[in-house]
Structure formats: structure tokens, C-alpha cells
Q: What sequence folds into this?
């Protein structure tokens, strides 16, 4: 199968999960194959408490190793905290976060990754709100080698669609609703849901959408068609609606920030999901719709404490890693064991952290980090 056809089929499977979450393992298995990895998962981590869990995976990691990771080794993984320093949407491999030769000396690698033959991990943020984050990640086996430019590019092709599918699922949260009761389910959602045909004619709108359309500040209906007051946004909508009729080969779901007007007090965003392929066709048959438009308030990304601290105190990535390890693990000998580096190296980086932050004791570092996390962090 050609790569473009393989990607198109994968995109279709990813968006089918919006209406049936039980399809995620199969979709992730296809994603693992396309990216050329050993296993993949959608998971969450809490950098403050060294905890996390898997939302969905492809079964490539055994249940026992998965249990061990979240019970013990997530706290020993030297990349767990520093990963929060990276940007949403950009694939990050192990060597981007930790010198690879140092990584190979850590307990995490020696006791958890190496016995499975795993040599690398590439991940991308789907959603980030301090101190928690949802991510998509792919493990690489020694047969495949460490992450290379081709792997990163394939992750870039897949990740935006996984992110949109997850976000749309959060917006609609249909659970086990069948297509026959779809209209009733939509009316109970807080987000606006609008079903349109290839020309943008409105075929159905839920209760929340009627309120949005009635106000006319974000979107409105003119001569039966969904339109925006902004010419560029309106043109984008027309193009996306027409492309949606061609199926997932058009690129899957699209995301459009809706223009802010003087009457709009909060920013809104629209996700447009094609309904002409796979399981989503059943949701569209009742209305002959080709796309569903989900309109909701844009969630502003919360700050990430590691990123803010690095910027505030001009810390290098290694210094930031040592700082959080000192706070979370303990003294120099324990941190050296977890990070797989010499105690003298830890002391060197720690002295630079003290100098840059202006504190002189480990207890003061704990207070400093706690102040950046803040009492309102979930």
C-alpha cells in the first residue's frame, strides 16, 4: 500500500473513534505501523505527583510492564518532568530531553525499557495544563533503532488528527450513544453542533447551536447556509465543506479559530469533522450531511511550571532536570542513581541552579517550585 493511501486510511480510522471509542486500540495499532514503532498509546502524566495512566493503547506493551511503569518507573523516568518543557504539536524523542548515553545508564532504562528491547520513545502533547498533560507516544524497539527524521515526520502527519479526534470526543462525549438517538444526544451538549452538506446548508443544529446562530456574533445562517461575518473565515468554511464531501482523503477534521468581534467576549473555535467515511457515515445518513461543525469556547492553554521556571531563571534543560529531580527524588546520591550520572555531575548542575535561582538550600528549591505550580493547579 502506498504511504499516502496508508495515511488516508489511518486518518479515517482515527476520526471513527469520535463516535466509537472502542475503535482506538485498532487505530493506534495502525498508527504504530505507519510510524514504524513497536507500540503506541494515548496517556496522561502528572509531573507534580509522578503519576499517570493510559487512556488507550494498541496492546504493544504487556499489561505487567504497563502496571510497573505507572506504579514505580514513571518516577524514575528522567524525561517525565522535562517533557513538559516542550511545545504542543512538536515530536520529542528521548535524546531531545536527556543525553542519550546518560539515559542508557538510568535505572529506568536498565530495569524497564531494556528488558523489553525498547530503545527510544517519541511523543507529542495533545493537551497541556499544568501540571498535567495528555500525550500520544510511540516506542521504538532495537529492531527499528532510535528515532530518526522520518519517524518524526510521520508523527507530525498523524498527531494533529489524533489531537483533533480527542478534542472533538471531549466536546461531544457521546459515550455509547447510537446513531438513532444522535439528535437527542446532541441537544443535550453544551457545545454547538451543526450538520451541513457540501455547500454549507444547515441540515440540523442542536439547542446550543441555535443560541450561537441566533446571536449571530460567531456564526449565523444566511439563505440557509452557515456563514461567518469574516470573509476569510467564510471562504475557509466553504473550502472545507466542499472537501469534506470527498472523504478523509481531503485530510480529515479541520480546526478554525473563529474571528473575535467587539460583541464577542470570549474566543470560539470550530472543529469540522467529515461524515462520509467509516462509522461516521451512520451518523450522517439521517440528514444526508457531509460534515459536522462543533463550535465551542477556545480553552486557553495553561502555563507549564517547568517552562516558566526555565524562562524565568535561564535554566538549561539539564539544570531543569536536576532541579525537579532534587525536588521529587531527594538528595544528590538518589538523584544521581535515578538520572544515571555521577554525584559530582549532579552537584555541579545543582550549584548552577542555586546560583541562577538565588537560593542556597534544597528546602528553598522545594518552596520555589511549589510557588510556580500554584494552589489552583488541578
A:
Amino acid at each position: 500500500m502506498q504511504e499516502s493511501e496508508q495515511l488516508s486510511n489511518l486518518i479515517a480510522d482515527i476520526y471513527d473513534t469520535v463516535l466509537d471509542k472502542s475503535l482506538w486500540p485498532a487505530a493506534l495499532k495502525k498508527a504504530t505501523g505507519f510510524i514504524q514503532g513497536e507500540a503506541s498509546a494515548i496517556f496522561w502524566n502528572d509531573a507534580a505527583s509522578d503519576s499517570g495512566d493510559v487512556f488507550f493503547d494498541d496492546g504493544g506493551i504487556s499489561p505487567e510492564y504497563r502496571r510497573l511503569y505507572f506504579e514505580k518507573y514513571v518516577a524514575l523516568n528522567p524525561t517525565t518532568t522535562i517533557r513538559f518543557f516542550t511545545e504542543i504539536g512538536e515530536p520529542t524523542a528521548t535524546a531531545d530531553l536527556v543525553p542519550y548515553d546518560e539515559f542508557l545508564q538510568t535505572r529506568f532504562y536498565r530495569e524497564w525499557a531494556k528488558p523489553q528491547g525498547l530503545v527510544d520513545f517519541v511523543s507529542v502533547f495533545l493537551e497541556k495544563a499544568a501540571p498535567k498533560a495528555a500525550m500520544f507516544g510511540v516506542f521504538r524497539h532495537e529492531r527499528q533503532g532510535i528515532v530518526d527524521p522520518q519517524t518524526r515526520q510521520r508523527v507530525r502527519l498523524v498527531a494533529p488528527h489524533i489531537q483533533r479526534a480527542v478534542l472533538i470526543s471531549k466536546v461531544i462525549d457521546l459515550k455509547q450513544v447510537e446513531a438513532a438517538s444522535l439528535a437527542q444526544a446532541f441537544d443535550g451538549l453544551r457545545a454547538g453542533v451543526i450538520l451541513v452538506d457540501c455547500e454549507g446548508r444547515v441540515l440540523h443544529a442542536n439547542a446550543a447551536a441555535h443560541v450561537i446562530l441566533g446571536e449571530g456574533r460567531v456564526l449565523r445562517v444566511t439563505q440557509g447556509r452557515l456563514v461567518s461575518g469574516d470573509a476569510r473565515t467564510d471562504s475557509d468554511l466553504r473550502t472545507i465543506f466542499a472537501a469534506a464531501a470527498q472523504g478523509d482523503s481531503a485530510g480529515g477534521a479541520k480546526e478554525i479559530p473563529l474571528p473575535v468581534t467587539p460583541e464577542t467576549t470570549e474566543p470560539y473555535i470550530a472543529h469540522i469533522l467529515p461524515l462520509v467515511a467509516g462509522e461516521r457515515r451512520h451518523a450522517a445518513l439521517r440528514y444526508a450531511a457531509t460534515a459536522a461543525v462543533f463550535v465551542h469556547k477556545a480553552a486557553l492553554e495553561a502555563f507549564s511550571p517547568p517552562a516558566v521556571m526555565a524562562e524565568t531563571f535561564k535554566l538549561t534543560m539539564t539544570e531543569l532536570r536536576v532541579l525537579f529531580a532534587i525536588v521529587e527524588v531527594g538528595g544528590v546520591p538518589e538523584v544521581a542513581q535515578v538520572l544515571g550520572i555521577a554525584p559530582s555531575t549532579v552537584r555541579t548542575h545543582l550549584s548552577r541552579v542555586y546560583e541562577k535561582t538565588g537560593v542556597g538550600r534544597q528546602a528553598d528549591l522545594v518552596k520555589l517550585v511549589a510557588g510556580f505550580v500554584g494552589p489552583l493547579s488541578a
Remarks:
- The CA atoms of residues 131 and 217 lie 34 Å apart.
- The chain has a mean pLDDT of 80.
- The longest strand covers residues 118-129.
